[in-house]
Design a protein that fits this description.
The chain is α+β, with helices and mostly antiparallel strands. It has eight helices and 14 strands. Helices cover 26% and strands 19% of the residues.
Length: 359
């Protein structure tokens, strides 16, 4: 079956809507009053940003420097669920190349991109909506989704052949981020008082999953009425975001406020996913976040998802459970969890709250 035709209703490319010059967005993209973007965030005097951490300090010969850096990571995971990392070992040139090659892809003629149109069964390829519910409210964004790990699910035929350098750059970039994720897992394990490979093993060891979603947020004539990406928490273990280097859009919930993240040059934005909140027994927080759009500029970002092996049971680490600290979450495989959150409907601020153990 044709991928475009396999969706329950006609697919509309948001980029095409933006390029058409409309001044009023279609009803499908207007969110409920209670969830419309609010641009009255924190007062100027209270402007803050998510923590910024220099990973080069973890290579220091000074144990105090290393321990101070670990403490900063720990505090960010426990209080924010988000932080930025600099001096992370990934080439800045590669970061710029992969972002621009995808910007180039989204600027291709629509008929060239349609060759890679995705299906609701896998979402792999060029897409403009998530979920197959008819009449659902939609976000103001297009995307390209591809699998990287496990290798048996990797299909490079579904990766764009144009720009000609795309496949090579994406392959190099994904491999670099797998290495970064494994390093971060060590630091997060140590901060929980666990063996440094404990979290990696809890996710499936060498059999973890990884995927890349490239987000394209076109200009929007009524940005106050919609979202580029609606409020959500990430269902996997960890997300590494390469933000647009010119336009902000990511907002993170901190207590009762929405904080607009100000990306640091050559940094990655790291956020804890639902599965790490479960394994850490709630010590690390998977936090609600969203993306706003604007009327003057497009925005491109790349989200790299690091996930557990699909059939791996995810539950609080036994080392963190004591007679006075019970397990806070129910055990569930990652595949079961994804199915559960797709079918359960809205429940709580983050998806993971819905699998907390009854008391």
């Amino acid at each position: 079956m044709n991928c475009v035709q396999s969706w329950p209703e006609p697919i509309v490319r948001v980029q095409s809507l933006s390029d058409s010059g409309i001044r009023v967005i279609p009803e499908r993209y207007i969110k409920r009053q209670s969830t419309k973007p609010c641009f009255k965030l924190t007062p100027p005097s209270r402007e803050i940003n998510i923590p910024v951490i220099d990973l080069q300090n973890m290579l220091s010969q000074d144990i105090l420097v290393r321990n101070t850096t670990l403490a900063l990571i720990s505090r960010a995971c426990r209080e924010w669920g988000f932080f930025q990392v600099v001096n992370h070992g990934v080439s800045h040139h590669l970061m710029d190349r992969v972002r621009e090659v995808w910007r180039e892809f989204f600027h291709l003629p629509v008929e060239d991109k349609q060759v890679y149109a995705n299906c609701p069964t896998t979402y792999e390829g060029y897409g403009s909506r998530l979920g197959i519910e008819k009449g659902a409210k939609l976000d103001w964004s297009d995307y390209y989704f591809l699998n990287y790990l496990p290798t048996c699910q990797r299909n490079e035929h579904k990766w764009p052949s144009y720009p000609s350098s795309c496949k090579e750059i994406v392959r190099e970039y994904n491999e670099a981020l797998v290495k970064l994720c494994r390093e971060l897992m060590k630091f997060l394990s140590i901060n929980l008082g666990l063996e440094e490979n404990r979290l990696q093993q809890a996710l499936g060891g060498d059999e973890v999953g990884a995927s890349l979603r490239v987000n394209y947020y076109p200009k929007c004539p009524q940005p106050d009425l919609t979202f580029g990406l609606s409020p959500h928490s990430d269902p996997g273990a960890m997300t590494i975001l390469l933000a647009d280097n010119q336009v902000s859009g990511l907002q993170v919930r901190k207590d009762d406020n929405w904080i607009t993240v100000k990306p640091v040059p050559n940094a990655f934005i790291v956020n804890i996913g639902d599965q790490l909140e479960v394994i850490s027994n709630g010590n690390y927080k998977s936090v609600e976040h969203r993306v706003v759009v604007n009327s003057s500029a497009e925005r491109v970002s790349l989200a790299f998802f690091y996930n557990p092996k699909g059939d791996k049971i995810i539950e609080p680490a036994t080392e963190l459970i004591t007679p006075t600290v019970p397990a806070e979450y129910l055990p569930m495989t990652f595949n079961e969890y994804r199915t559960f959150i797709r079918t359960r409907g809205p429940c709580g601020k983050t998806s993971v709250e819905s699998i907390k153990s009854p008391r």
